[in-house]
Amino acid sequence: MLDARIADCFACPRLVEWRTSIAEVKRASFRDQEYWGRPLPGMGPPDASIAILGLAPAAHGGNRTGRIFTGDRSGDVLFAALYRAGLANQPTSVSADDGLALRHTRIFAAVRCAPPDNKPLPEERDTCAPWFQRELQLIRPTLRVVVALGAFAWAAWWPAMTAAYGIRPPVPRPKFGHSAQVSVPGAPVLLGCFHVSQQNTFTGRLTPAMLDEVFGRAKVLAGLA
Ligand code: SF4
Description:
This protein is an alpha/beta fold. It has helices spanning 2-7, 13-25, 62-65, 73-84, 122-139, 151-165, 198-202, 208-221; strands at residues 50-54, 105-109, 145-149, 181-182, 189-193.
């Protein structure tokens, strides 16, 4: 129900135009495919204990396949790590009907439509925040840990935490860093992780071992290991 409502959102004119134009023009290598070209709901069981929070869908990844982190290099790295951690049933995510299933884990993004240059505007982040908050409310009963992929997701967490849990963020707000961990009483533990972008993984700033450490710690904090 919520997923269907998210997929039918047209609230940000710039992003609606962008996601639609990308879906019409397409990348040459995908020209025979029908692009999704709409907002992306979250993925994973509604009783997840671990949430992974990303920035926004990729133009030719999620915006093409209709599933978050699916069909691009970022997803290749992320789902391989989730598989190694036992949180996914297969190491790849290539299309919405490829049989991938997550265990104990739900993935969503702070902004649900692909933005130009992967950079949503502050007002687009704020306009999209209610979708994130509603999804958070739904998984709140079982949620124990949130892994924020990058500084944008880290910053988006605080207002969502206040909306879903009625808890104010610490002052000053904890800074994002890879492996940073913040425990606010009454809220899920927040873990920082460098984003799985090509920029980070191709340069070695984020390695598979670093991802394994973060997801291993998330499992322990969630009571899964
Ligand atoms: S970014 Fe969010 S609020 Fe804006 S159109 Fe997409 S789904 Fe709607």
